[in-house]
Each structure stands twice: as C-alpha cells, then as structure tokens.
Specification:
The chain is an alpha/beta fold and 583 residues long. 34% of the residues lie in helices and 17% in strands. The protein has 18 helices and 21 strands. The strands form four sheets. Strands 2, 3, 5, 6, 9 and 11 form a six-stranded antiparallel beta sheet that branches. The chain has a five-stranded antiparallel beta sheet with strand order 1-10-4-8-7. The protein has a five-stranded parallel beta sheet with strand order 13-12-14-15-16, with helices on both faces. Helix 6 packs across helix 11, helix 7 runs parallel beside helix 8 and helix 14 packs parallel to helix 18. The protein is globular, with a radius of gyration of 27 Å. The termini are far apart.
Length: 583
C-alpha cells in the first residue's frame, strides 16, 4: 500500500511539470519556415529536398536520398530559458563511420543581438523519439526578448515529424523562409555531409552560416554524377550561385566522358540561368600517397575537369569559375576514411570554398569588426531587424527607388516606408525627402558592419539609383577606434559602388551628440579626408545642430541628445538630400 501511495504521489508531482511545456510544430506555423529547401511551394510542408514530381524522373537512389533533410533548418526567436526538440526519423540512427549525432541528430545555434553565433549543446537521447534538451539559457545583454535560433536538421535521415518545446510562459516565433536568392550545391556524399559529427559541421552548412545566404544542399551520397535529370530541377531555382562538386562520384568514368559531362552540365544550366557557376575539383584521398590506384583515380578525374573548364573558357561561356585541388589543399588528417572528411576536413573545405565564393559574389570580409558583415537585433521591442530587411527587399522590388539613404535610427525614425511608429521628423521627410525620391533604408541601432550585411544581402540590388546617401557610424562610437570607423566606411563605400556604380554617392558626417561633440568634430575631419580621397561627396550638415559654444542645441533634439526632432531634421534635410556632383 505504501508503494502504491508513493507511486501515486510521484505521478501527481511530475504531472504538473510535464504540463508546463508547450510544443510548437513548424508545419503549423501558418507560413513556410523550412529554410534552405527550395521548391517551397511544393514541399514546404515536409522535411525533404526534391518535389514529388521528381520521382521517376531522377534515379531511384537520388529520389530516396532526397528524402533526407541535409542542409535544412528552422529559424525562430525565443526567450525560453530551456528548449527541447523532439522528433522521429525514417531510417537507421548511425553508420559505421558516422555517429548518430551526424546521421540523425540536430544542431542548435543562438545568435545574440550583436550578431554573434553561439553553439548550443543539448543533452540528447536516441530512441524511437529522439530528444535534445537545452538548459540554462542566459539572457541577451540588450533586452529580454531572447535570441534568434537556427536549428539544423539531420544529414543522413528523413524527418517524419518534429516539435520544439518551451516552458509555457516563454515565447517562440518562427521566422519565415528567407526571400533571398540561394546558393545551390550539387554534389556527392561529401556535400550531403559525410562524415560530419553533427549537422552544422557539413561544409555546405558551414559555408551557409559564414555567408548567411540560403544554401540548398543537393548532395546525394554516391549519386552526385552531373545527371541532366537532377540539373533540370536545379535549373528551376533562380540562384545567386551554382556549385557543382560531383567529381568524387565520377572517378570510374572514362576521362573524356567526365569532360563531356562537366561541359554539358554547365551548358544545361546556362540555357536557363545566367548566375555564376563554380566547378570544384576532387579534393583527393587520405591514402593517395600510399595507394597508387587512388592517386591515379582522382588525378585522372581532375584532369578531365580542368579540360572541361578550359574548353568552356575557350568557347566564351561567361561566369564560370574553378576551384582546384591545389586551392582546396586538404591536410592529410582531413578524412574519417579514405574520402569522407572529418569535421576538421569539412571546416578546411568550407574555408577554401568561401574564399572563392566571396571573390565571385563580390562580398569580401575584412579583418576588423567594421569590415565584417553581421546582423543585429538590439531592440526587438521596437522592431524586428530581419523583418524590416525583408520589408525593404519587398518594397524595393515593387517600387524601385530613385534615391536611397542608408543609416541607423536617425534615418529609420525620420519617415517613409516601411513605416515605423516612431516618426521624429515625418513632416520634414514628406516635405524634402519624399519629393526627392528617397527610399528610407535605415535600421535602428545599426552600426557600419550591419549596413554592410544589408548591402551584401540585396538592399542595393535590382534597380539603378541616381543617389545613394550614407549616414552611419555614430553607434560605433566607444566600440571601435577612429581608424576602424573610417576604414569600415571606406570598405562599405566600395561595396555600395560595386552595386550602384552609376549612382552619385554622398557620405554624411556623424551628427553631433551630447557630450561627444569634440569626438564628432575630430572623426568627421578624418571621414571627410577619406571620402574625398576616394572620390565621393562629403557633407557635414550636423554643424547646424550646434550652439556657438560647440555644444548641441538641445531644442533641436527629442531629449536624448542624439535624435533630431522635426525642427532639427528641417535644418539638415536640404543638405542631406541634395548632391552636388556625380561619382
């Protein structure tokens, strides 16, 4: 009887704890949330990689492998102190050379308000229902709205169902599928992710995290063979770049046939798409120095690949690029077996590919903070930064602007579309900026590196502006040296000119701010010198916001000594909106 009472007490004790959790199903979000998928309208309600109409068109092994969730991810916001993930998979949990955490596991990363990525380790259990539990999640330094999360799905298994759990008093909001053009990766088991120890360590996913573009993983284990049937589906995707990394699955083909396949693959894509195509050589074998057959196989394949590239170049096929075995330069300890990379090898290949991709897409990343593009989420209580970026892209696509102004909250809260509830200078915007044709591309709390990310992610693409005004840098005050701020602006101006080469470009000096007036004067002198040396226009309208003693005129600000009020905007708007010369 005592045992029965004890058991009943335990049940009553644990039942409320279980009831404290609420479960969120991505498939019931009300909008597509499966990132890096492609064919979203057809398969956005499943964790697969090719649409149903591919069955019977692509080979049976490719079709079966396309049911695996390699590269797919779910993005969400949450303020939960604990997060659980539970799901079921369709196949075996592991392979002899690849652990359950890679074959069937998930990976969770958090991104804080400064755009810094952090790996989240979860206690896991691999049973019929797989579970990951993430405990003791801290708080963001700026706010209580939690973090942005990226959940990467299994590499070598299908997902039947999945739910994300949070305590009942916590919030979770799924992030819609990115509208940006993806990178499409077509390759072998290596591209699919063998033999990463966990999903986010596949080299394609490492590349996706580094560039922060959608990346569609069409790696098919043993079946990345430049098949025209697969390329047919790849060509349906309007990508920013196509990566063809199939050489490791073509080693037993005749050398001339490999050359023909590579040429045919590029020309097939070119029939529909003009985006750059990157051909990647076989990266070699772990035992190529001790097994002469292995060395001959990959060397023959790479010769064929180079011949294909050279012929395409000679025929004038545009925007075809090449990544060689020498550039990949895989160290001897890069592999788990003879051909499949370890995490170390995956990281090495990702770095080599990233370097080439940044050259192709003109998205360099510098060595100091102000030259490394990064996101931010510093005031989600006011607005969601990524949502505003998406709204920019949609508005620009529907209303190509004649002029744009890039900036922080001083620009954001001025006026224009997309609208924001804070409108510190709406009257002046309507009187001066709107008639001049300006699109507001300001985001509250932005720094130079955040604007660089937005420029790299489409805010200056797809239209031809007559004017580009840049008003950024005040939020880097106290965090970066004057030299870093000036160099960051120089770097950003280069990115702007790359995308809007015909536009007149004006840089607005940092506006004066309370107790920083002398610093503003000094750095604006350095900014002016750099801007004019680079051949752009510089203006310093902020002097109109100063008193005779050099301090800010408080009556021209909203009360924080940083953001102008409508009267302040009225004094500076004319000089900001006008441009005196062309680049």
């Amino acid at each position: 009887m005592k045992k029965l009472i004890c058991l009943l007490f335990c049940c009553l004790f644990f039942l409320p704890a279980a009831a404290q959790w609420k479960w969120h199903n991505p498939m019931k979000a009300g909008f597509p949330v499966i990132q890096n998928q492609g064919f979203t309208k057809e398969i956005g309600d499943s964790y697969t990689r090719l649409p149903g109409r591919a069955k019977g068109v692509v080979s049976e092994p490719v079709w079966n492998l396309s049911r695996h969730s390699a590269g797919l991810a779910i993005y969400f916001y949450s303020d939960a102190p604990r997060i659980k993930v539970r799901y079921a998979v369709t196949g075996g949990l592991n392979m002899p050379h690849m652990p359950s955490t890679g074959v069937s596991g998930v990976d969770l990363y958090s991104i804080n308000s400064d755009g810094e990525w952090r790996f989240c380790f979860g206690n896991y259990s691999f049973k019929d229902t797989i579970t990951y539990t993430y405990n003791n999640i801290g708080k963001d330094r700026y706010h209580k709205q939690g973090f942005e999360y990226r959940l990467y799905l299994p590499l070598y298994n299908g997902v039947e169902w999945l739910e994300i759990g949070t305590p009942k008093d916590a919030e979770l909001e799924f992030i819609p599928v990115s509208p940006e053009k993806p990178i499409v990766l077509y390759g072998t088991s290596i591209a699919q992710g063998a033999c990463a120890s966990r999903p986010a360590m596949a080299w394609g996913t490492i590349l996706q995290r580094s560039l922060d573009y959608p990346l569609i993983n069409l790696g098919f284990s043993g079946n990345g063979k430049l098949a025209k049937e697969v390329l047919q589906f790849i060509g349906e995707t309007d990508a920013r770049l196509y990566i063809l990394d199939c050489m490791p699955n073509l080693i037993h083909e005749d050398e001339a046939h490999v050359t023909e396949l590579a040429i045919a693959a590029v020309k097939q894509l070119r029939e529909k798409r003009s985006a750059p195509i990157l051909l990647v050589e076989h990266d070699g074998y772990s035992n190529q120095q001790t097994d002469t057959l292995q060395y001959k196989l990959f060397a023959k394949t790479n010769r064929a690949s180079r011949k294909a590239y050279e012929q395409l170049q000679s025929e004038g096929v545009k925007d075809v690029y090449y990544l060689s075995y020498e550039e990949l330069d895989m160290p001897s300890d890069s592999w788990v077996d003879y051909v499949h990379p370890s995490d170390f090898g995956m990281q090495h290949q990702a770095v080599a590919v990233e370097k080439k991709v940044r050259e192709i897409l003109h998205i360099p990343a510098g060595t100091i903070a102000t030259t490394r593009p990064v996101t931010q989420r510093r005031e989600p209580g006011m607005y969601e930064w990524r949502a505003r970026h998406r709204a920019f892209l949609e508005h620009i696509a529907n209303h190509p602007p004649k002029a744009v102004i890039l900036g922080n909250s001083i620009t954001h809260y001025w006026g224009g579309e997309p609208e924001h509830r804070n409108k510190n200078g709406r009257e002046t915007w309507e009187k001066v900026m709107r008639p001049a044709g300006f699109q507001n591309l300001g985001c509250g709390w932005d720094r130079i590196e955040n604007v660089l990310w937005r420029v790299y992610h489409g805010e200056l693409d797809g239209y031809e502006a007559g004017k580009v005004v840049l008003m950024i840098g005040t939020n880097n005050c106290g965090l970066n040296s004057d030299k870093e701020i000036v160099e960051g602006l120089r770097f950003l101006l280069s990115a702007i000119h790359q995308r809007q080469p015909k536009a007149s470009v004006k840089v607005i000096g940092i506006l004066p701010r309370r107790n920083q007036e002398q610093w503003v004067r000094n750095i604006n002198f350095d900014i002016k010198e750099m801007v004019e040396t680079e051949g752009y226009e510089f203006a310093n309208p902020g002097t109109a916001l100063l008193q005779q003693d050099g301090k800010i005129n408080e009556s021209l600000f909203i009360g924080d000594g940083l953001h102008p009020n409508d009267k302040g905007y009225e004094l500076i708007a004319g000089e900001i909106s006008s441009l005196n010369k062309s680049f």
